[in-house]
Amino acid sequence: xxxxxxxxxxxxxxxxxxxxxxxxxxxxxxxxxxxxxxxxxxxxxxxxxxxxxxxxxxxxxxxxxxxxxxxxxxxxxxxxxxxxxxxxxxxxxxxxxxxxxxxxxxxxxxxxxxxxxxxxxxxxxxxxxxxxxxxxxxxxxxxxxxxxxxxxxxxxxxxxxxxxxxxxxxxxxxxxxxxxxxxxxxxxxxxxxxxxxxxxxxxxxxxxxxxxxxxxxxxxxxxxxxxxxxxxxxxxxxxxxxxxxxxxxxxxxxxxxxxxxxxxxxxxxxxxxxxxxxxxxxxxxxxxxxxxxxxxxxxxxxxxxxxxxxxxxxxxxxxxxxxxxxxxxxxxxxxxxxxxxxxxxxxxxxxxxxxxxxxxxxxxxxxxxxxxxxxxxxxxxxxxxxxxxxxxxxxxxxxxxxxxxxxxxxxxxxxxxxxxxxxxxxxxxxxxxxxxxxxxxxxxxxxxxxxxxxxxxxxxxxxxxxxxxxxxxxxxxxxxxxxxxxxxxxxxxxxxxxxxxxxxxxxxxxxxxxxxxxxxxxxxxxxxxxxxxxxxxxxxxxxxxxxxxxxxxxxxxxxxxxxxxxxxxxxxxxxx
Length: 576
Ligand code: SF4
Ligand code: SF4
Fold this sequence. Notes:
With 576 residues, the protein is an alpha/beta fold. The chain is built from 16 helices and 19 strands. Strand 7 and strand 8 form a beta hairpin.
């Protein structure tokens, strides 16, 4: 794909295949400066608002919590902490519906707010050039995840694997989905904070260039950032770049292509080619955590669409129910046709107004029939190829559709289904109105479920084999121990002390001198005779056969004791 220039002296940019020019509709919501949403009576804070393992609650029902207090601990490396968005009392920890395309439920911490909005003690500010590990630890503590919608834990993304040298940091302010304007407003209203965050990450990664990319349909945002850059004391290596407005230029791989001409490998990550991307809202949140000690407890949400009374952007506490946000935006129009979480291209239907805002929710979009006309029933594919032309990843959407429909999962993988970014370009241009992305999402879920089954089966097989091996090893150890014990007993058996009675046959001299000993000898003799008689009848006790020498001596010593007792009894008996 050839590069193109925007003008003399401007950085060379590249294009990506496909893509669409869409009506942006940003003016509906980006007219007013950012405002804060009022506190709700109740916060519903999901323990999983990120890619990776859910956080573990560290509070209990009945606990009073303060704003910014840790309430969920990250579980493992790919996880993120969760903090209370306001002060109040924990009233429940339970499963609740959360924003997700599947309409799933997940564990949430419910906080009854107390109107005090009292802060917990926050960590002190970091220096302007903090130690990299201290900054990473602060980002981890603050629970910062990608706020562009991916919700990937930022501390992980900012820790390149050993051997990887990151040379370019790209800050994504493209915000290419129609209607959404939360990043636009952030760039216009808080450009200094974004630059502070940019400097932190530039120094953390030691990059050669930090490129802040903004689509050219946001001239005010570009201007605000450039002005802040001029007044900033330390802007070395930071560049604000206006890129052409073309959906989906804000896709990570598409943006890298536009700015550098490089391709991220299929199913690879940008770090493999020395690039790290961060959304500009994430960068501002990192600056908040570093310089204000503030964890990620709020985010900017665009409330828009002609189905809302007053479209706008609000900074809202994480955990606010969608229903309360709708009230803040003038309520829903009776003409509402579709309510979406996210934009019109990649968003998903919102059927439950009690789901909360999470770190990944950037937009609530209420569309009227004019904005979302009924496409009518899907028709048969006419093999026009329009979907392939529009695909920004150079996939073959038509073939993917056929194989997904036939549930041929091997084939959809062969056609690189997992490179699909679900941008929706193919579905928008399809003259047959086939909901192509829904087929791809379905096929991805099927593939993931099958992979999961395979992993579980493999895990079970490995566990079984490990168990068998362990039992075999224990059996071998048991046998070896038994053998050793027998050998040890034989070796350790002490020789009889000098002068000790000879078991079974007392010394004749001793017997002659001592009547007691004579009685013992007589008793032993009787016992031996009795044993011989039993043996002659085949009644000899079997449990004394094959005894070890030491055991044999113990038995014989017992015989001696019994004989002594018998002799004592005989001696005590009156003579006839
Ligand atoms: S755009 Fe629609 S009708 Fe045309 S080839 Fe693709 S799936 Fe078939
Ligand atoms: S949704 Fe997937 S297949 Fe369709 S255009 Fe986008 S990347 Fe291509």
